[in-house]
Amino acid sequence: MGNVMQCSIHSTTVTRLCRRFFIINLCFLVWIYPGLSDDRLPFEVFETPYLILFYPSSLKDIKSEFVAAYDSAESNLNTIFKWRPRHKIQLVVINNRQTFLQMAEHPLTVAFAEMKHHRIVIDYQQVVTRPFCLETTVQHELCHILMDHYLKIPIPRWLNEGIAQWASEGIAEIIRLEANTLQKAAFSGNLIPLYKLDASFPMDSSQFILAYEQSKSFIVYLVNTYTKYALLELLDQIEQGQSLHEAVLSIYGKSWRELEREWIASQTQYMAWMVYISNNMYTFIFIGMAFLCIFGFIRIKLKKRDYPDDWDDDDWVQPLELEEQ
Fold first, then answer.
1. Does residue 8 lie in a domain region?
2. How does pLDDT run across 304-317, given as a tens digit for each residue?
3. For the whole model, what pTM was predicted?
4. Measured between alpha carbons, how far is 123 from 127 in angstroms, rounded to an integer?
């Protein structure tokens, strides 16, 4: 009993020391780089039974917004996966882009999760700008942490990112500089093989965006083709300790490579239809106008059929002449 109490006290002490160490690091960062902080003051801390919120004093009036966003994100993910965080989550809110970029993986990143510390770091100025949303961004990052809590084996980066995007309304954690990145890559045959995205994503901005787009598209394809229940069963089997390869074969009856080929075929087929339509746009317009002319001609003929047999165009004139007299 004494040993248990000593372990508990020791664990609590270590947790407090780690928390203080993290706060000191944040304050030190602000002190070393005063120009990077919007208010040049140390981070304030707000703690609940399940969340530790670090935020600059300039955002103290909306700290309830952060807590509400986290509560909603956790509830939504529990509805999808039936998972709750196994550790208290740290939510760090940065209100200056340059400060955030000191810690981010890539210049296009607006938020990231540190699984080892159960920590979410977000760039507040970016995540409140369309198409981002504070709640969905927190939900995306929390999904990463939950997968780390529950899955007994590491999963590929692209699979992790794809699931997090699918579970957060398709919102990623990066700024997209251009549209139709995935469609252009599929049309030109420049899709990145998924195995090259197992460990990390390319640092080139266009390839970085494409990696996120492919990850989301592949998971959406799996959900639309094989239902979301198959994906959830896959995660459940991994949670039970089964290898990823065995779980995929068990659930889908195919390997990742076969599923990837199916997905690529679906993308190229879609692009083939788009190219066919764009190349024949004038033909479709001409056919559409021809059908409209035929439809109008038939309507005129049907209306004329309703006129009396002895109807003459001069009958329009006679009533007018009588009125003038």
1. no
2. 666 555 555 555 44
3. 0.73
4. 6
